[in-house]
Amino acid sequence: MHFDADMPESNFLRGWYDNVGHNSSFNTQGSGSGGEGFTRGAGGFKREEVKTIHEVRESEIGSHDKADYFDIRATIVVLKEENMMYPACRGESCNKKVVASGNGFMCEKCNLTWDKPEYRYLLGLQVADHTSQIWLQAFNDVGIMILGMSADELSDIKDREESEFSKVVQKALSKTFNFSCRAKQDTYQVNKSYFVVSCLMTTLGCNSSSLRDQ
What we know:
Layout: H1 8-19, E1 28-29, H2 53-58, E2 68-79, E3 85-88, E4 99-101, E5 104-107, E6 112-114, E7 118-121, E8 123-128, E9 133-138, H3 140-147, H4 151-160, H5 162-171, E10 176-185, E11 192-202, H6 203-213
Parallel strand pairs: 9-11
Antiparallel strand pairs: 1-11, 2-8, 2-10, 3-7, 4-5, 5-6, 8-9, 10-11
């Protein structure tokens, strides 16, 4: 594990935190996807309740039989483009992946065939704060918040112009969010997985580019 890694994202985050961030508080921007971690009192997201990524990685969070929950404030530094969307069943509350068939797209769970699927997000993203980095997984609602559009819309863009698709993904980088996450150890109790339950973009996320360029 490396702290104070010599990389542009880490240097930017460290410089911002040392000069501005450690004395700052932030309002959140967003609607609908705010989870339990972001509704604690009228003051919104409270700095004293946020864990650093280093604290999460070095703690027992996610090492128990039941899932653990935690909140972090972090900036997206990597967003995997490959397999970030999948074709899903359009049935209510299904969301299972469908397979192409001669007559359209079939859901093996529902035993239904659709003329077209509903694309949904399945994101792998690396986020960082001033202490460390961590890989998170995120699903459809969080993906909409991060990318600013539905997976169906982004899939259409990708089909029309691959370069435009990449621009949309790249635009999500350097945005800062309050993430409410779930940690769970895998079946073999070897690795921990971290899933984003909900997220809200901070005002820092809107201003990160201008802060970096100063």
